[in-house]
TrEMBL record, chains A, B:
Keywords, comma-separated and alphabetical: DNA-binding, Plasmid, Transcription, Transcription regulation
Pfam families reported for this sequence: TetR_N
DNA-binding residues (ranges): 31-50
Alphabetized InterPro entries for the sequence: ArpA-like, DNA-bd_HTH_TetR-type_CS, Homeodomain-like_sf, HTH-type_TetR-like_transc_reg, HTH_TetR, Tet_transcr_reg_TetR-rel_C_sf
Name of protein: TetR family transcriptional regulator
Gene Ontology MF: a single term: DNA-binding transcription factor activity
Organism: Streptomyces xanthii
Domain HTH tetR-type: residue ranges: 8-68
Amino acid sequence: MAKQERALRTREALVNSAAEVFDCEGFSVASLTTISSRAGVSNGALHFHFASKAALADAVEEAAERRLDQVTQRGTEDPNALQCLVDATHDLARGLREDVVLRAGFCLSSDQSYAGERDLRVEWRRWVEGVLKRADGDGTLTESVPAQDVMLAVVAATVGFEVLGARDATWLSYRTLTRFWQLLLPRLAAPATLDTLRAEGVHGPRAGNAARIGHQGREP
Amino acid sequence: MAKQERALRTREALVNSAAEVFDCEGFSVASLTTISSRAGVSNGALHFHFASKAALADAVEEAAERRLDQVTQRGTEDPNALQCLVDATHDLARGLREDVVLRAGFCLSSDQSYAGERDLRVEWRRWVEGVLKRADGDGTLTESVPAQDVMLAVVAATVGFEVLGARDATWLSYRTLTRFWQLLLPRLAAPATLDTLRAEGVHGPRAGNAARIGHQGREP
């Protein structure tokens, strides 16, 4: 039992270490020796758990997929579907800032030298499509705006934040996401729900006393 | 003179071939032999023009930068700064669809295995910032929307279209860009100019008889 637990911990350390190295160097350049030594294990232990670098990348993507599922599941808590979308983008941005496994999983989706089975951006797109369909159905999305057009804009912008954020974390900041939603929500929300929506998200650091989106002023 | 011209043509063929290979495989995996044989020249000719793979990538980025300059220069023709921005995003998307050099130049900007001197996404961001400052100054941008927030949304979305478009060209289609602007322009444009703006761009395939953005209906 203790042995099994140790094996699980070694595997997890290898997945984290691989995510760090893929995140810094990309898949093709990453060396298995760097990954194992960063995890504090031997090359032999690495090969016991993973037959190849591709198997390791697959494990990173799988772990990242589970974390993306957590983001989108938490993003279904609010009864207002548009608020769910706002909250999930904040959670995703925080995850990409703080969690190297999630970041590496997204990076691997566009790494030409690694053709994995998963594509986290496609999974994110599917979730955004679903939640907007819900917003369309329950009338929180304004009638004059097609849900599909909103999906295009939101998925493109969040993927842009993710890619630009890899070089400059400002793109993934709480403030950037809040400003994005302050811009977009008045165009998307049905007039009756606009005043109840929080561009800063309901889980955000200033969620308690933040201004509602209808009342933000012009920046200096 | 003929010899010099031949040398220039060989150099150009190598830059195009390198762009194709970088675009497909990424910088680190790309082989110089594949690049030279695809250009129809010897390895020796490649090394006569370029000392290293990094020098070749630098030449691709330089050529891509010139093409981006053409996009943004053409995007200053319209007296309405917001229309300039719309037109330039359409031109950029068309360029990324059709021109492998421009596409490879943008890709190299986020390739972890190649640390070049240029970053086309940063150059694009600077241009978007400038044109929005102009729109803010001349009153085509509505007063209630900070130019900096519009910059964040437009740069993130266009970078998203670029990255997603590398796997699925629909993201860079004329229709996708038009729908993006149909969504955004009513939130950005000062009421007096909204009716004069064309979400489909003034250079687009249907520019002659396209509907103005104020009057689009809900999609089926």
